[in-house]
Amino acid sequence: MKRWLGRYWRLLTRPSVHFSLGFLTLGGFIAGIIFWGGFNTAMEATNTQQFCVACHEMERNPLREMQDTIHYTNRSGVRAQCADCHVPHGWTHKIARKMEASKEVWGWVFGSIRTEEQFEEKRLELAQREWARLEANDSLECRNCHEFEHMDFTAQSSRAARAHSTSLASGEATCIDCHKGIAHDLPAGHHGGYEAAALEAGIPDVISWVTHLGRAEAAKPSQLTAP
Predict the structure, then answer these.
(1) Is the dihedral of CA 167, 172, 177, 182 positive or negative?
(2) Which residue numbers belong to the known binding site?
(3) Which residues are annotated as a binding site for a menaquinol?
(4) Is the pTM of this model over 0.70?
(5) Which of 53, 147, 153, 204 is the Cys-Cys partner for 161 at CB 3.0 to 4.6 Å?
(6) Per-domain residue ranges for the chain?
(7) pLDDT tens digits for range 104-114
């Protein structure tokens, strides 16, 4: 053991052209820490709301829509940022998503979605691509905050509890199947509605949360009575 340690110590202290191998190893280790810290800091900076709004011109489009939803203002004061719904938290999935999102930066740089009109023209395409991505990864971003294991079905409406405890629990459906449009306006040309999505997902007796709210809001004037 002593001989083995001595041999490797001599290897580490043996001089290179200008520096010892030990110095180069330690220097490389320190440089790696600095690089990793800088890389991770830059990665987190791209997850901030300020970065997303600046790069994607979202202040005039999706951000305004989100400000009217429960993900932005709610009784608990917990606010979702862009990255919470569009970037997974896990390192491997996060890197893959960042690489995929580079196409969005390309689109902004070359002016394909800079203006409000351009965004509206592409809204359906962008929405369908995002819905397909969430369906493929089992709504991984939704699960950044919403954990099925911690759901209290007794605190949910009967409709939501029925959907979550059956179709979601069995894997027949995923979050996005019933929650399209929960944070942003639905695009023009979106056909089928939420009832159709529920049927496709195998939950015909479930009306989407957004559709339910829309119907409740539309019904309010008719429910008012004169004093």
Answers:
(1) positive
(2) 52, 55, 58, 82, 85-86, 104, 142, 145-146, 175, 178-179, 184
(3) 82
(4) no
(5) 153
(6) 37-144, 147-175
(7) 777 777 777 77
